[in-house]
Amino acid sequence: MLKIVTFTLGPAMTNAYLIADPETSEAAVIDPAWDGHLIVGEAEKNGWRIGNIWLTHAHFDHIGGAGAVADKSSPPPPVALHPQDYPLWRAQGGAPFFGVRIDPGPEPTIDLHHGQILHLGSNQLQVRYAPGHTPGHVVFYCQSEKVLFCGDVIFQGSIGRTDLPGGDFNTLIDSIREQVLSLPDETRLLSGHGPETTVGRERRYNPFLE
Ligand SMILES: [Zn+2]
Ligand SMILES: [Zn+2]
After folding, report:
1. With contact defined as beta carbons under 8 Å apart, do 140 and 126 qualify?
2. Are 134 and 149 in contact (CB under 8 A)?
3. How many Å lie between the centroid of ligand 1 and the Cα of residue 3?
4. In whole angstroms, how far apart are CA 202 and each of 7, 42, 82, 141, 196?
């Protein structure tokens, strides 16, 4: 089973997800958005050890808490990112463009790729490559829990913006059709911003997918 704690943090109200296998107390952070000390504090409260940081993409509002998570964890957890987003990561996820400063933490050392399986205790998360919002965006699918951590690919009633560097609208729509709408209707969508939704709900009501 997978425990999921959701935080909404930082200037862009970004969702960070602390996930854990309560049997083994192994935990990972998907998109340590901001205020990493809050995420580490929650893990400590539950007796979980953060062993990994998994990034859906490298925008500053999704990585801004990574430095603090790494600083407060020993050993600092390795950071995983798709290589196509490394240039964006090195540019601090566009933070200077938005006039903010972040501590992006340790350089990513784990390359994510489509089809890769990530392990968290007895849970498995499948990496699915879903570019369009950024060139190296991935989503994380846990089939046994029927949940997709989908970053900025799709939101309740909306989709990720494609006007930032490296964005492409048609590529994003293709990613949504192939990597999100191909999943069962009951699959929970935990997005990078806004409330939780499901594949079925977005299939029916998302105005961008008509
Ligand atoms: Zn983004
Ligand atoms: Zn975002």
Report:
1. yes
2. no
3. 24
4. 22, 31, 26, 17, 11
In whole angstroms, give the CA distance from residue 134 to residue 94.
Answer: 11
Cα of 115 from ligand 2 centre, angstroms: 23
* Below-70 pLDDT ranges, the chain: none
pTM recorded for the entire structure: 0.98
CA 151 / ligand 1 centre spacing (Å):
7
> 23: CA distance to ligand 1 center in Å?
32
| Distance (Å) from CA 47 to ligand 1 centroid | 30
Nearest-angstrom CA–CA distance, 64 and 17: 14
pLDDT at 210: 81
pLDDT on residue 78: 97
Cα–chain-centroid distance for residue 36? 14
